[in-house]
């Protein structure tokens, strides 16, 4: 019931703000209503433009066509590159040249290329080289089909393409646009399966970015059969010296079945849980600003239930101060959302995790392996023009934002490796767990806020779910893995570790 009240409060917020096409809110409402729980792991900031005549500086002002967000911060490619040290790699000429990043999504976007080109030219990036593959034929874009699923996937597609390009601007991009989408179960996997086999056959040595996920328990009796099929694909990827990166999910440990019903115990998302896949979790990067809530999450939802203007609630809960740099576990209770992470029920502890405490893993595969910014308040700027959403710039987060950027960072490593006469990184996990701690920004508990708003972010429990989260601790943990890569050291040490 508490989860239902949260969704009711968010629906009120959507109505009062006049939002359109926010995939995150569509998914939340449908899950509670027992409909399809769509799996693109994309979280879109609600439109909160600065009020006419306001003297308060918006937290985000986009490039042209200008749109302002009063309460949500945003990052450009230059901002993100500087925050993670990717700019130093670019300065050495390591930009992904000669490498390929394969993006796997369902449906794709009817404006994928033109939106990517506009994004690229706006930020002064090289013209993108994009190939689109439809393994089951090109779908007809329909904003109303499957309760808006194609709109969510189009947002996902633009996020993936634009931010893979942002971090590895000279890499070739391949979009595998599968049809239909997976909807918490086995129905859509044949198309994704076919698309990934195509990628392995045609782009050996590439990096695959997967922004889809399902709860491990969703397979029910079909689990081993379906997982075995994909394991064969991932084994083929290993043989083809490819790296596969997959998002861990946006609901912390509180995931649903194919009817949208919440599992009452901690669960993990697949395929991120597969040991042949590198699991990408989420952090909350606050670069040049600091979150300073003055009310608690409980009071925020109480405010939404009674306020005539939800901006008063957002102003108090998403209050911030200028200055400061921190990176916390991604847990935004106003959505509510949190980074996926936990223990797999499908896979035992793999050998590359044997050095982690047995008391933590309890014989299971633990995820994520590493993380990147996934926040919405402090999200990535994404440009879209497809029907079903406001045309223009949006602020988007989710572990789907983390995944393509981590994939792009591996593409940078592949370029450096090639320049040294080495092969591509390929199967990343065994190498990842041998890297020194200095290659990562360790994510530890962080405390924010003033007065009644003081809160410590120290787990990935999704607010209001009632499902226990995993603890964020010093060192490797089940919320952010090693933390985020310190890209310059990470790439150089990773390549040095290659034979």
Q: Helices and strands in order, then pairings?
A:
Blueprint: H1 2-17, H2 23-33, E1 43-44, E2 60-61, E3 68-69, E4 74-75, H3 77-84, H4 86-91, E5 100-106, H5 112-122, E6 130-133, H6 149-167, E7 172-178, H7 189-202, E8 207-210, E9 214-215, H8 223-239, E10 243-247, E11 269-270, E12 278-291, H9 297-306, H10 311-317, E13 320-329, E14 331-332, E15 337-338, E16 342-348, H11 358-361, E17 364-367, E18 370-373, E19 379-384, E20 392-397, H12 399-419, H13 429-432, E21 440-441, E22 446-448, E23 455-457, E24 484-485, H14 487-496
Parallel strand pairs: 4-19, 5-7, 5-8, 6-7, 8-10, 10-12, 12-18
Antiparallel strand pairs: 1-20, 2-3, 9-11, 12-13, 14-15, 16-17, 19-20, 21-24, 22-23
Helix pairs in contact: 1-2, 1-9, 5-6, 6-12, 7-8, 9-10, 12-14
Task: Tell me the distance between the termini.
Answer: 55 Å
Q: Any idea of the CATH class?
A: Alpha Beta
- DSSP strand tally: 24
Q: Name the CATH superfamily assignment.
A: Peptidase S8/S53 domain
Largest sheet: 8 strands, mixed
**What structural category characterises the helix and strand content?**
alpha/beta
Here the CATH topology equals Rossmann fold
Radius of gyration, in Å, reads 21 Å
In round numbers, the mean pLDDT is 89
């Amino acid at each position: 019931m508490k989860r239902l009240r949260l969704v009711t409060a968010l629906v009120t917020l959507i109505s009062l703000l006049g939002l359109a096409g926010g995939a995150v809110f569509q998914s939340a409402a449908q899950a509670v209503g027992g409909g399809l729980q769509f799996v693109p792991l994309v979280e879109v900031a609600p439109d909160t433009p600065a009020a006419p005549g306001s003297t308060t500086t918006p937290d985000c002002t986009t490039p042209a066509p200008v749109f302002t967000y009063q309460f949500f911060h945003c990052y450009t490619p230059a901002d993100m590159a500087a925050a993670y040290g990717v700019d130093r790699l670019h300065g050495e000429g390591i930009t992904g040249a000669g490498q390929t990043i394969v993006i796997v999504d369902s449906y794709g976007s009817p404006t994928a290329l033109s939106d990517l080109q506009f994004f690229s030219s706006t930020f002064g990036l090289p013209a993108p080289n994009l190939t689109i593959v439809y393994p089951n034929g090109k779908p007809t874009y329909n904003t109303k089909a499957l309760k808006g699923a194609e709109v969510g996937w189009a947002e996902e597609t633009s996020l993936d393409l634009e931010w893979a390009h942002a971090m590895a601007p000279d890499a070739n991009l391949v979009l595998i646009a599968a049809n239909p989408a997976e909807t918490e179960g086995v129905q859509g996997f044949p198309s994704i399966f076919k698309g990934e086999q195509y990628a392995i056959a045609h782009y050996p040595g590439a990096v695959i970015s997967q922004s889809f996920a399902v709860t491990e328990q969703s397979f029910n009796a079909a689990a081993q059969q379906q997982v075995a099929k994909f394991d064969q694909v991932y084994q083929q990827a290993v043989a083809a010296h490819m790296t596969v990166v997959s998002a861990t999910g946006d609901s912390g440990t509180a995931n649903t079945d194919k009817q949208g019903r919440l599992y009452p115990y901690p669960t993990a998302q697949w395929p991120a849980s597969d040991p042949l896949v590198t699991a990408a979790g989420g952090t909350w990067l606050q670069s040049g600003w600091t979150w300073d809530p003055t009310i608690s999450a409980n009071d925020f939802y109480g405010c939404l239930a009674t306020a005539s203007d939800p901006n008063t609630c957002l102003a108090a809960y998403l209050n911030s101060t200028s200055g400061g740099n921190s990176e916390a576990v991604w847990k935004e209770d106003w959505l509510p959302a949190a980074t996926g992470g936990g223990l797999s029920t499908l896979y035992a502890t793999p050998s590359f995790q044997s050095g982690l405490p047995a008391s933590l893993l309890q014989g299971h595969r633990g995820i994520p392996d590493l993380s990147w910014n996934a926040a919405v308040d402090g999200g990535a700027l994404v440009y879209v023009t497809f029907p079903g959403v406001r045309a223009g710039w949006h602020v988007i987060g989710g572990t789907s934002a983390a995944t393509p950027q981590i994939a792009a960072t591996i593409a940078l490593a592949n370029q450096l490796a090639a320049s040294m006469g080495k092969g591509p990184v390929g199967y990343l996990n065994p190498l990842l767990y041998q890297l020194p701690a200095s290659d990562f920004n360790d994510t530890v508990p962080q405390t924010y806020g003033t007065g009644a708003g003081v809160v410590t972010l120290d787990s990935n429990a999704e607010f209001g779910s009632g499902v226990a989260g995993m603890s964020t601790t010093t060192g490797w943990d089940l919320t952010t893995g090693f933390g985020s890569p310190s890209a310059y050291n990470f790439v150089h040490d990773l390549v040095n570790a290659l034979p």
